[in-house]
């Protein structure tokens, strides 16, 4: 009687371990791709340089000349 209970506990603990790992990596990847997706594109009106920043819809300084530009809206 004790042996099947041991097997059941072993399988359930293995399933819980894999479910925990799956949830952890799923959340980690979701945060990573959300951060990657939140790029804003800017076009500098002074020098014409095209660049991107991670902040959403905030004015950002041009990386070439330092002029502050608004993000492009599509
Ligand atoms: Zn510029």
Short description:
The protein has 74 residues and is an alpha+beta fold.
Please give the structural blueprint:
Elements: H1 2-37, E1 40-43, E2 50-53, E3 60-61, E4 68-69
Antiparallel strand pairs: 1-2, 3-4
Please describe the structure with a list of short key phrases separated by commas or semicolons.
alpha+beta; two-stranded antiparallel sheet; two-stranded antiparallel ribbon; binds zinc ion
Structure description:
With 74 residues, this protein is α+β, with helices and mostly antiparallel strands. The chain folds into 2 domains: 1-37; 39-74, no CATH class. Helix content is 49%, strand content 16%. The protein contains 1 helix and 4 strands; from the N terminus they run H-E-E-E-E. The chain has one helix at residues 2-37, and strands at 40-43, 50-53, 60-61, 68-69. It has a two-stranded antiparallel ribbon. A two-stranded antiparallel sheet has the order 3-4. Strand 3 and strand 4 (68-69) form a beta hairpin. The longest helix is centred in the first third of the chain and has 36 residues, at 2-37. The radius of gyration is 24 Å and the shape is rod-shaped. The N and C termini lie far apart (67 Å). The relative contact order is 0.13. The model has no long low-confidence stretch (mean pLDDT 90). The chain binds zinc ion.
Number of strands: 4
- Helix and strand content put the structural class at alpha+beta
Q: How many whole angstroms does the radius of gyration measure?
A: 24 Å
The best one-word shape is: rod-shaped
State which percent range the strand residues make up: 15-25%
Return the string of H and E elements. Answer: HEEEE
Name the poorly predicted regions.
none
Helix content: 40-55%
Question: Could you say how many structural domains there are in total?
Answer: 2
- Cross-sheet strand order for the largest sheet: 1-2
The chain-level mean pLDDT equals: 90
């Amino acid at each position: 009687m004790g042996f099947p209970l041991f097997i059941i506990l072993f399988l359930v603990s293995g399933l819980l371990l894999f479910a925990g790992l799956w949830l952890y990596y799923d959340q980690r990847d979701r945060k990573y791709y959300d951060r990657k997706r939140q790029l804003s594109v800017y076009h500098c009106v002074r020098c014409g340089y095209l660049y991107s920043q991670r902040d959403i819809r905030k004015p950002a300084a041009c990386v070439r000349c330092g002029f502050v530009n608004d993000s492009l809206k599509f």
